[in-house]
Every structure is written in C-alpha cells, then in structure tokens.
Amino acid sequence: MTELSLVLPVYNEPSIDKVVREVAALVDELTPGAGEVIVVDDASTDGTGVIVDALARELSSVRVLHQVSNQGHGPALIRGFDESAGRWIGHLDTDDQIPTAELGRLWAVREGRSLVLGNRRTRHDPRHRLVLTACVRSLVRLLAGRPVEDANVPCKLFTRELWNEVRPLLADDTFAPSLALVILAARWDRPVCTLEVAHRPRSAGVSSLQPRRLASVVVLATRQTLRVALVAARSRG
User: Fold this and answer.
1) Alpha-carbon distance 130 to 158, whole Å?
2) Secondary structure string (H, E, C) spanning the chain
3) Please, what is the Cα angle at 54 between 50 and 58, to 5 degrees?
4) Residue 35 in this model has a pLDDT that exceeds 90
5) Gyration radius from the chain CA atoms
6) pLDDT (tens digit, 9 = 90+) per residue, 84-96?
7) CATH number reported for the structural domain that contains residue 109 in this entry
8) Residues in Cβ contact with 225 at an 8 Å cutoff, skipping those fewer than 6 apart
9) Nearest residue to 187 (alpha-carbon basis) of 237, 223, 150, 123
10) What predicted TM-score, i.e. pTM, was given to this entire model?
11) What is the pLDDT of residue 214?
12) Cβ contact 49:14 at 8 Å
C-alpha cells in the first residue's frame, strides 16, 4: 500500500533535476518502498519534460504525468492529486525556494491531523507576490472563519480522506485548489497543524506569475474560491 504521494508541479524549471532527486530520496527515507513522487509537467517548452522522463527511468519512485497543453499550476496540482495513490498526499513546488527537508518536519507531526501546512514566516519573494499573499490571507480569514497565515503555501501534507471530500467541489481548472482545501478543512473543523518553514530566494529561472497578471489572478482565485465555499455551505446545510 502506498503511504505517501508527493506531487511536484513543474513548468520550465531549471532546478528540476536537483529537486526531484532530493524529494525522491526523502520519500524513500520517510516511507521505504511505500512512497511515490508524481511530477506533473505542465507542457514545459525548455526540455524539462525530457529531464523528468529520464529521472523516472532512473528512480523507481518517480512517475511523470504530462499535460497536453499548458493549463496552469492549479490544474497540474489537481491532476497529480487525483492520480496519486497514497494515504497521505503532499505538495512541494519545484522552484527550490522551500528546502525539501521541510516536508520531513511536516511528516513528523502528521498523526491526528487532516492537514499539515508550512508557513513561510520570512518570505523572499518580489513585492507583487507579497501583495497577492496579503489578499489571499484576507479572503481565507473571511471564508474559513479564522486566520490562516499562509494558506497557499506550496509545502503541505493532507489525508486522502480530506482530498476525497474536497475534490467533488472543485472544477478541473481551479486556479488555487490549495485555498479551497484549507478553507474547507477549517470550516469542517478538521484538525489542522501549521509549522514554520524556511524560505529562500529563487536561485534560477523566473516565476510564471508576473506583476501584469496579478489583478486577473486575484479576481479569478477569489471568484472560484467563493463559489467552492458557497457550494460547500449549501451541501452541508
């Protein structure tokens, strides 16, 4: 039985070889013979797909899913979560800004929880991303009924049971499935734990979220998340 599935969404990421190797080693350490690493290549154009395919041939715990077109971070995550087999599902972005070892710290405190979140207390991101985080924090507090410092953090673990409850409420093209996951876990009084995690500047490549897209991203994420929260409230009402 698969104990842990770690999902890594990727698009044109120079650090991918390093990150996948580190994550595969961590999964083998945490769950020897009972873990998997699922890399979701979002139709990269720079050779990332070739690199991850080679890694999958070399590393037995690594599996690669290729999107037929670039659909964005959220749909890539959803596909990875859907096709995972683990009792626990994890998520780490592949930009190498959060050290892989932080997932091991989350794993150590998972028992009795439905969701374990990292919290990037000290952020090393450009100003426009910090603005986005502030908007997200306000939205989550409103919909969850309690503050969550870093709801969209790309370093988390959650149970298969929680995902199976949340998934029917999400469209396949949801931009920020992590927000829905956190908000619904809070609204449903699921046990949630938060741990501070390290965060460092990006050493290579550029973020796909550029300042000119910020307003449209905030509007889209807000609209989709409000819809999910409303549907969830009606279904439980």
Assistant:
1) 25
2) CCCEEEEEEECCCCCHHHHHHHHHHHHHHHCCCCEEEEEEECCCCCCHHHHHHHHHHHCCCEEEEECCCCCCHHHHHHHHHHHCCCCEEEEECCCCCCCCHHHHHHHHCCCCCCEEEEECCCCCCCHHHHHHHHHHHHHHHHHHCCCCCCCCCCEEEEEHHHHHHHHHHCCCCCCCHHHHHHHHHHHCCCCEEEEECCCCCCCCCCCCCCHHHHHHHHHHHHHHHHHHHHHHHHHHC
3) 170
4) yes
5) 17
6) 999 999 999 999 9
7) 3.90.550.10
8) 139, 143, 176, 179, 180, 183
9) 237
10) 0.91
11) 67
12) no
User: Distance between CA 83 and CA 158 in Å, rounded?
Assistant: 15
Distance between CA atoms of 24 and 123, rounded to whole angstroms?
Answer: 26
- Candidates 205, 11, 169, 14; CA nearest to 78 is 169
What one-letter code names the amino acid at 157?
L
| Rounded Cα gap, residues 136 and 44, in angstroms | 27
Structural domain count of the chain: 1
CB atoms within 10 A of CB 147: 11
Domain of residue 19: give its range.
Answer: 4-236
Which residue's entry shows tokens 């979220």?
A: 209
Q: Is the CB of residue 61 less than 8 Å from the CB of residue 35? A: yes
Name the pLDDT band for 209 (thresholds 50, 70, 90): low
Residue 50, classified by CB atoms within 10 Å of its CB into exposed (0-12), middle (13-18) or buried (19+), is exposed
